[in-house]
Amino acid sequence: MTPQQSRLVAAVRSRFGARSVSTDPDAIAPWLVDWRGRYRGAAPAILSPGSTEEVAAIVALAAEYGVPLVPQGGNTSMVGGATPPADGRALILSTRRLNRLRRVAQDDGLIVAEAGVILQTLHDAAAAVGHRFPLDLGARGSATVGGLASTNAGGVQVLRWGTMRALVLGVEAVLPDGQVHDGLAALKKDNRGYDLDQLLVGAEGTLGIITAATLRIVPAVRARAVGWVGVDSPHAALELLRRAERASGAVESFEIVAGHSLGEVIRHIPDTRSPLAQAFAWHVLIEAVAAGEGADDPQRVLEDLLAGALADGVIGDAVLAASEAQAKAFWRIRHSLSEAERASGPAVQHDISVPVARMPDFMVDDAARVERRFPGTRTAAFGHLGDGNVHFHVRAPAGVDGPAWYAEEAGAITAYVNDLVVAAGGSISAEHGIGQMKVAELARLGPASRIAALRAIKAAIDPQALFNPGKLVPLAGEEAQP
Amino acid sequence: MTPQQSRLVAAVRSRFGARSVSTDPDAIAPWLVDWRGRYRGAAPAILSPGSTEEVAAIVALAAEYGVPLVPQGGNTSMVGGATPPADGRALILSTRRLNRLRRVAQDDGLIVAEAGVILQTLHDAAAAVGHRFPLDLGARGSATVGGLASTNAGGVQVLRWGTMRALVLGVEAVLPDGQVHDGLAALKKDNRGYDLDQLLVGAEGTLGIITAATLRIVPAVRARAVGWVGVDSPHAALELLRRAERASGAVESFEIVAGHSLGEVIRHIPDTRSPLAQAFAWHVLIEAVAAGEGADDPQRVLEDLLAGALADGVIGDAVLAASEAQAKAFWRIRHSLSEAERASGPAVQHDISVPVARMPDFMVDDAARVERRFPGTRTAAFGHLGDGNVHFHVRAPAGVDGPAWYAEEAGAITAYVNDLVVAAGGSISAEHGIGQMKVAELARLGPASRIAALRAIKAAIDPQALFNPGKLVPLAGEEAQP
């Protein structure tokens, strides 16, 4: 521990008690590695303030002593965004004790939750008042409100409800000078200059530490219908999506799956089978829901949609889940894709987006380009077609030594894929953020005007570069020193 | 003209032709005064670039020569936001020639419009493809896309569709260093750090000059129903709103009108009459629409809603417009309120918001406080209850000399009202922005952490303070020199 860190730790312990600090290496160890084991950092202490005021006091002291802080919620980042630098110069600031639901106001359609509230807890709190928080993802048992907001998380309901950016009505955050920004009033109209709440959403903890958020909740689902559809191409899938959007606001999920990816699921995941008898090059999982009092029957919405699309030759075949068990079986295929892809062999994964209208071409033509450029590889693209966002995997050629191939080729493959994404007007990070993993590619692909603006904002708000060092747009000297 | 201004004007004329510059005082004069005649500035030239590239070149030259620029669209600001400083050190940069619709893509639900496109033109373009741009306001014949986005404009459809912030899917803007930020791809998911598009929305031209925007369009209205409702209190009106929100997504407008304000309309505006026979303390104008293929019948939505509310004693009486002519007559009352209030005598006007749930108390209790504190005055609050946003007028006592009263009392009244708004957790500028008019009150009421963050961002992005000087959060030395 540096002398500055020691002073900070001692001050926090004396002001806020023993439970606000941990220096036990065994207790700290799990929080130094990201959950996929790709990034390993060092930190001599975890600070765990119990209130916004304590966060503000800690930040003010850290600013005075020049000690960097890494905010951490559930530590479920896919890009090393919550892992401290390897040189141990930063302390972890955990939001685990900021775990109160300050307000559940179903009439106003909102919940005010502290940063450490876990997504599952938020779902339960909304359900208890006949509502739901319309964002869900696999890490729901660990991911926290602060992390979800700081990374602008997505999920399978973005089509209808948007990402966290649309669901966060306001945030409370401690800024690097120790001041508290309070946007929890969540005004529907507020034109007092730059939108600080939106600036903090997706900032990955580099501009402020979110301590609480006002979140939108919506009426609970009263009924749902889930369909599985076979199509010839992503273009046909997009046409089906357009029809769904024109027909009804009830469609909440629209996920595309390649036929060969479905094959991997059936091969590797027990008790799975194809919902359709016939083989198709592409498949779509579609879900419609009814919520609120006067909503359409979702079963009828999907029946009408799919019957029309079948009659017009847009789709090849379709089936509606006849029971909740069957609906779950359809969704299990979708949620097993990552696991099945892993089981099928090594692959370089990408989390990318392009404009929705451009996505079918990307999935066909650009995917073919990748396979030509790296002979023997096979691409797999699946996910949120309606958001213009797919998980784009490039699988190793058959028979290669996986780790060696990855070490040799992954960088070149990712650079090539990212170049195609940029050429298509897309984003090299659709859902997961930049964290540590994509810092270099973001800097390479810019564009320069964007990087310059991000750096200027970072330097203006956090001139000492003490908030989540080394992430997103590290300032000069902010990279971890070995 | 300063030597620097002369160099800039000469360079622009030689590079981009005579029509890109005007130095004719008669041609310039109308653009030096805001449309209400409250702010008067000076500028020796108007620059009118014809493309984003020309804007970028002009900005780069202005940065080199140190010449401030005031971006101007339709010049319809309510707060002097587009009026140049009085000392003439800035030039006006007009977006009038950036008037192309670059793309109308109804299948994607978007239009890409240049900054100088007038709102009415945008409405017409959307209507031509069976769609609509769901934002409307009185200045639709003058207000431009660039100004609407830069001020995060609102209107009477915010309840359902949000302000410009929700309708702007991405912007193209020239930053103060002459670089172009291109966010027009309008990715639904893009987590490459801070959201520059959202930062530029509502920035009032102080961080970038918006040159184009990708805007959301939605299916055209196929049928609408308009109702007029009498209630005893804003609290009852809010309960009606909650019922409407639970019942249906079809309600797009929900406007509250005080009984005495309705009286002013009937007194001052020809051919108006009260829609209800009985007198009520408060009235609500409610509109439901059907759009898209499977939408509910809006007439039935309102019938069910109002019948239930009447049976439960929430409302006192209600009538549905029996014809489009009657619907227009109801709306004419709403749109005549400002004119009727003006005709009824001098008043100090405020554009404020508080959390929606808090608004009824504000309209009753805080309004009474104002009337007690300034004896003889009478408050009038009307507008967008569902957005927590009302136009809050404080009328002069009967018999006073209007201009003298205004000169004497307006400042104290506004400060008192703003203090109440801040105490209620609200915003001193809901719709109109800060411009010149509210700079001092924003600085006074902060909070300090907010002002510090705004200033830091402004200084980081526009270190020479050349973009729309004197507006929003003027930096040191940026105020107009007499």
From TrEMBL, chains A, B:
<keyword id="KW-0274">FAD</keyword>
<keyword id="KW-0285">Flavoprotein</keyword>
<dbReference type="Pfam" id="PF02913">
    <property type="entry name" value="FAD-oxidase_C"/>
</dbReference>
<dbReference type="InterPro" id="IPR036318">
    <property type="entry name" value="FAD-bd_PCMH-like_sf"/>
</dbReference>
<protein>
    <submittedName>
        <fullName>FAD/FMN-containing dehydrogenase</fullName>
    </submittedName>
</protein>
<dbReference type="InterPro" id="IPR016167">
    <property type="entry name" value="FAD-bd_PCMH_sub1"/>
</dbReference>
<feature type="domain" description="FAD-binding PCMH-type">
    <location>
        <begin position="39"/>
        <end position="220"/>
    </location>
</feature>
<dbReference type="GO" id="GO:0022904">
    <property type="term" value="P:respiratory electron transport chain"/>
</dbReference>
<dbReference type="InterPro" id="IPR004113">
    <property type="entry name" value="FAD-bd_oxidored_4_C"/>
</dbReference>
<dbReference type="InterPro" id="IPR016169">
    <property type="entry name" value="FAD-bd_PCMH_sub2"/>
</dbReference>
<dbReference type="InterPro" id="IPR016164">
    <property type="entry name" value="FAD-linked_Oxase-like_C"/>
</dbReference>
<dbReference type="InterPro" id="IPR016166">
    <property type="entry name" value="FAD-bd_PCMH"/>
</dbReference>
<comment type="similarity">
    <text>Belongs to the FAD-binding oxidoreductase/transferase type 4 family.</text>
</comment>
<dbReference type="InterPro" id="IPR051264">
    <property type="entry name" value="FAD-oxidored/transferase_4"/>
</dbReference>
<dbReference type="Pfam" id="PF01565">
    <property type="entry name" value="FAD_binding_4"/>
</dbReference>
<dbReference type="InterPro" id="IPR016171">
    <property type="entry name" value="Vanillyl_alc_oxidase_C-sub2"/>
</dbReference>
<dbReference type="InterPro" id="IPR006094">
    <property type="entry name" value="Oxid_FAD_bind_N"/>
</dbReference>
<dbReference type="GO" id="GO:0071949">
    <property type="term" value="F:FAD binding"/>
</dbReference>
<dbReference type="GO" id="GO:0003824">
    <property type="term" value="F:catalytic activity"/>
</dbReference>
